[in-house]
# Entry
Amino acid sequence: MTVSQVTAPMDQNAVSQVGSNLHRHQWEKIKKPPTFCVVLPVRNAQSKVAKRVTAIVKVLEEINARTTIIVVNDGSTDDTSAVLQQLTYAYPEIVIVERPEKKGYGSANRAGFRAAIDHGFDYALVLDGESPANAEAIELFLRPMLLSYDFIKASRFSPFSHVDGTTVAGRFACLIFNKVAKTVLGLPITDYSNGVRAIKCTLLARMMTEESGPAILIEEVVQGKKLGAKFFEVPHTLTARGSESLYCAAPSAGDYGKFLKHLLG
# Structure
């Protein structure tokens, strides 16, 4: 798998509108595009993981830079491990991180980040279990990567975003928390609890996150700000929920309490 390219000048406003306008030939003149891996945390996903990995591989094959998929199997009790082993025969470039016991969504993310650092990638792009595996979901991150942003968050609340399959109460709680987070942190992002993001591996190597669950999402933003990270946001369309999820990172009431602990600490 190899990353795509740009002939026109790049600016921040263009990035947020790149989804429908991005053509791969635009990236062909970039001399040294960033390398990146897609980190995919999974648990008990035997019936879904092959379809998701295959879809992502097809996107990455069209990108003209070094890329791969790092799948972190977080203590699955079904046949996910066997399915992943079969996938390595078809796609020997993918990396499988097997964890015999479930240690949590946040811990699985960290395991993927360590593998990304060990394999020498510039960025780790997390497409968690609820993300669509299509070209737009990945390509939206390419331009801000080329602009060398340290921390690129996908937002469900920015223009051109869309969310299906969530309750009104759940979305309201999420919206209120994210408004509080934006007020406290003052960063140019609107969605702090979304697991879809790309982070520079040099920044990840300096982070000391500890959360084992979804609270890692706000913990790493807070640490990134303290480390002087440059943030950016891209729109996100969330369409896969429930039975389609590879590893649901939807925060519980307890997780929101941990979010606030990091915000106010």
Remarks:
- Residues 2-23 have pLDDT under 50 and may be disordered.
